[in-house]
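Hi everyone,

Forwarding the result from last night's run.
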Amino acid sequence: MTSNDNKTCYTPLNEWITIVAENLPNLSQPQATVLAIFSFGMVLAKCCALTAVVIILAPLIKVRENTLRQRLREWYYDADNKRGDKRLQVDVSSCFPGWLRWLLSAFGDA
């Protein structure tokens, strides 16, 4: 995955990135992409430990472990602690309405 391309070489992850972006429209595309990568890795690793997620995902998406680790870390950093000039802090409270709609739609058929 290149810095200016939000697609990976792993199709199931690309599908998950699309689903996350559609259901959390308040996130920027890069924010939705990293959230999708992190959550996908948690499922594969069967835990939320950053190191476990990185070890399992890096070979799948053909990214160096340290590069992926930093990308995932910066997702949850405050804006002041992120690299670059235009980095934004994720306002998780703004994700709640989209997340709730998504959750309720999953149980709508039950």
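Residues 66 and 88 are 21 Å apart (CA to CA).

Cheers,
N.
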